[in-house]
Design a protein that fits this description.
Number of strands: 12
Number of helices: 14
Shape: globular
Order of helices and strands: HHEEEHEHEHHEHEEHEHEEHEHHHH
CATH superfamily of the largest domain: Leucine Dehydrogenase, chain A, domain 1
Strand content: 15-25%
CATH architecture of the largest domain: 3-Layer(aba) Sandwich
Largest sheet: 7 strands, mixed
Helix content: 40-55%
CATH topology of the largest domain: Rossmann fold
Structural class: alpha/beta
């Protein structure tokens, strides 16, 4: 079903409330037109559906599914699809808003969208995964398309889910449409460098932050002499940890859903990745001590990368954080209250819509390659990614200086400047 603006269902989650609070702070700082602000505080459209699936035991189970378009002012919607037991309409709406800001910030001709299914993916077999994503695709098929809205993987989904989505959509229209999704396998139109792009981008902006801080302050940081901790060792966190490791940074701790591992001399990240690949978790990793996720946040490291889920840094643990730089690999990992406190303590925060934008940037590259049927080398993809990330970082840093605000507010200002201009140029219909 479609929901009206008066439903009150999408403003119930802390993530959505936090996103609106951050947007209002940026709007106040930049003197944004009130009418533009009001339009950006609500999604353009939201769709809810029930998804019946015949399970392996023959029973039929019905799942809740969502797809939200926050803004399509700049182009087709863009945003992932997550499988998670705590997915709600409000959470998906907040993530769609963050995608709008992210695409605008890095200069892409794309709007913001997001989708999700309320399910524990670990409890599904492969056939059940396939049945669920295919039926979901048919439920939202009127909303998606290479010129409408281009889904991608997110928490709990991967390239195989995107292959099934592409096949379902293509079967429906009668011909192959690679551009309907991104994050696909290479053999059906995926892009080199896409799986690693978000984690790489997280580290690219850390390098830029260190360079900028060294120019501004008396202290000198060097990445190959820094220590780091990574919360979340999934698709983003493991790549970020490995990229830091390759640059000589000592990654002292990483964690997953079950807890973390710590080695005061630095973890052998490739070895940890091998263990994760073999056993599916960090439990029983033999060359490190077990720690909790809360202990990880409190470690005296130079760099902290929260790369798991939203809302993990709050007023309950913000005072224990000792990192000098926080690069937000996840979407919305920090509350506004925690952000303001940590910035007041001199912590340099690289906000999510900048830090983890590498994924959507290379998704855009994949979409373009698919439309042109012309594919780039991984070297070209990484070079273009680095170029876009640097330009975006410099724009945000420039607005941080101009408006005398933190990087989070500056990133939103940078996004909204472009969005506002586009909205005013297009006008309001009728």
């Amino acid at each position: 079903m479609s929901l009206s603006l008066n439903s009150g269902l999408w403003d119930t989650s802390p993530l959505f409330q936090n996103a609106v609070m951050d947007l209002e702070m940026a709007a106040k700082t930049m003197g944004l037109d009130h009418n533009v602000l009001e339009r950006l505080k609500s999604p353009k459209r939201a769709f809810c559906c029930s998804i019946p699936v015949r399970m392996d035991d023959g029973s039929v189970k019905v799942f809740e599914g969502y797809r939200v378009h926050h803004s399509i002012t700049l182009g087709p919607g863009k945003g992932g699809i997550r499988f998670h037991p705590e997915v709600t309409l409000s959470e998906v709406s907040a993530l769609a808003m963050l995608m709008t800001m992210k695409c605008s910030l890095v200069g892409l001709p794309l709007g913001g969208a997001k989708g999700g299914i309320r399910v524990d993916p670990s409890q599904l077999s492969r056939p059940e995964h396939q049945a669920l994503i295919r039926r979901y695709t048919m439920e939202i098929i009127g909303m998606i398309g290479p010129d409408k809205d281009i889904p991608a993987p997110d928490v709990g989904t991967d390239s195989q889910h995107m292959a099934w989505m592409m096949d379902t959509y293509s079967t429906s229209v009668g011909h192959a449409v690679p551009g309907v999704v991104t994050g696909k396998p290479m053999d059906i139109g995926g892009s080199l460098g896409r799986p690693e792009s978000t984690g790489r981008g997280v580290v690219y902006v850390i390098e830029h932050a260190i360079e900028m801080l060294n120019k501004k302050g008396p202290g000198k940081l060097a990445l190959n002499k820094c220590t780091a901790a990574v919360h979340g060792f999934g698709k983003v966190g493991n790549v970020a940890a490995n990229e830091l490791h390759l640059r000589g940074c000592k990654v002292l701790a990483v964690s997953d859903f079950y807890g973390g591992i710590y080695n005061k001399d630095g973890l052998d990240i490739p070895d940890v990745m091998d263990h994760m690949q073999k056993f599916g978790s960090l439990e029983k990793y033999p060359k490190a001590d077990r720690i909790s996720n809360e202990q990880l946040f409190a470690l005296p490291v130079d760099i902290l990368v929260p790369a798991a889920i939203d809302g993990v840094i709050t007023n309950k643990n913000m005072k224990s954080i000792k990192a000098k730089i926080i690069s937000e690999g996840a979407n919305g990992p920090m509350t506004s209250e925690a952000q303001q406190y940590l910035e007041s303590q001199g912590v340099f925060i690289i906000p999510d819509i900048l830090a983890n934008a590498g994924g959507v940037i290379v998704s855009y590259f994949e979409w373009v390659q698919g439309l042109q049927n012309f594919f780039w080398s991984e070297k070209e993809v990484n070079e273009k990614l680095a170029e876009v990330m640097l330009k975006a970082f410099n724009r945000v840093a420039g607005n941080s200086d101009k408006f005398k605000c933190g990087m989070k507010t500056a990133a939103l200002i940078t996004s909204v400047e472009r969005l506002s201009q586009a909205m005013l140029l297009r006008g309001l219909f009728p």
